[in-house]
Amino acid sequence: MQDKLKDIFKNSPKKTAAYVHVPFCARTCAYCKFYKTAPSFQNLELYLQCLEKEASRFFNSAKGAEISSIFIGGGTPSILSENQLSRLAKIFEHQAGKVEWTIEASPSTINPQKLKVLKSLGINRISLGVQSFSERTLKNLGRPHKAEASQKAIEQSLEVFDNVNIDLIFGAQNQTREDWHSDLEKAASFPLSHISAYCLEFESATSCCAGNEKPFETQIKEADFLYLAMDFLAQKNFKHYEISNYAKHGKECAHNLNTWNMNSWIGFGPSAASQFGGFRFRNTSDLNSWAKGVMENSPAREDIVKLDDDELFNSAVIFGLRKMEGVNLESLKSRFKNADFSRYEEPIKFLVSTGLLEKSGDFLRLSRKGIPLADSVAVELI
Ligand code: SF4
């Protein structure tokens, strides 16, 4: 299958999002499943050298590809020094100012000077991994920063960026409804443009919360916390546009919408996933193996799937249902003409009859009752 990827950049789509995985964390959080490694000087140097090479190979080969958004995630991208961040950003400097360009940052790794450098490089959106404003919850999550550091990081970020997101997590051990309400209140007290509220153990692409493997009481508690976030943030003028995401008017995350809409994205760095040129694949999740592949012009890729209309239609429905507006089935049918639509008729009829899905014109979407049960809905449609 690796051979088949040889020419993918020649089948470049007109537009593609770009994701850069920065696989370094100072310490490991208990619940985390992302690939990360130690930020030693040698590792960072190897990473940057290979990233430059991987990206230049892409830009030289996929000549027609226009980047529609850039997302630098991790790991902890903000662990890089100002000089290292400048090297990374240089890869995309020709896009600066043209597209949404996000960087994820950990509250304890930023300062006013670093924020100004990020902005001067063309980055126009920052996403802070706050997780909670409660010391107890942060401790339970194994997060290295203090609540006070988050508050300071938010204030400093708002001085530099117009577009600031914070990530919150609910469902931590011993977290009460009052704790969660107080996290939401604190978040809404800042002029943020976006809030992501993830359920703990949010791992799979289809997962929202209330995964079937969890005890029933946990599922009920998590659904209650999700409804609390939906109702509270709606009162604060945040639009709930995706299961875990809330935005002020016009501030929806373009990069993530690109994924939920099943468009193209190209990933750089170890473990970064791509959907590009008719394939879905992932760079190997090991810094040294990835670097070796890049240096030898023989990229180490895994989980390679050749995409056809059936696969894309299915993914577009499953991911698209994460959006609160749902999916326009008629437009997906004309986009993926060769998909077997007939196999969805019965499951959709059943899910509508249970009240988990609802139809409105050509749109199919999760009902309020169905939102916490998105996983179970997805299982019926896979
Ligand atoms: S900082 Fe983020 S990426 Fe790193 S271990 Fe913690 S949750 Fe995972």
Automatic annotation (TrEMBL):
It holds the Pfam family Radical_SAM. Residues 10-239 form the Radical SAM core domain. It comes from the Bacteria. Keywords: 4Fe-4S, Chaperone, Cytoplasm, Heme, Iron, Iron-sulfur, Metal-binding, S-adenosyl-L-methionine. It is found in: Cytoplasm. The keyword Thylakoid does not apply. Probably acts as a heme chaperone, transferring heme to an unknown acceptor. Binds one molecule of heme per monomer, possibly covalently. Binds 1 [4Fe-4S] cluster. The cluster is coordinated with 3 cysteines and an exchangeable S-adenosyl-L-methionine. Belongs to the anaerobic coproporphyrinogen-III oxidase family. HemW subfamily. This is Heme chaperone HemW. It comes from Intestinicryptomonas porci. The gene is hemW.
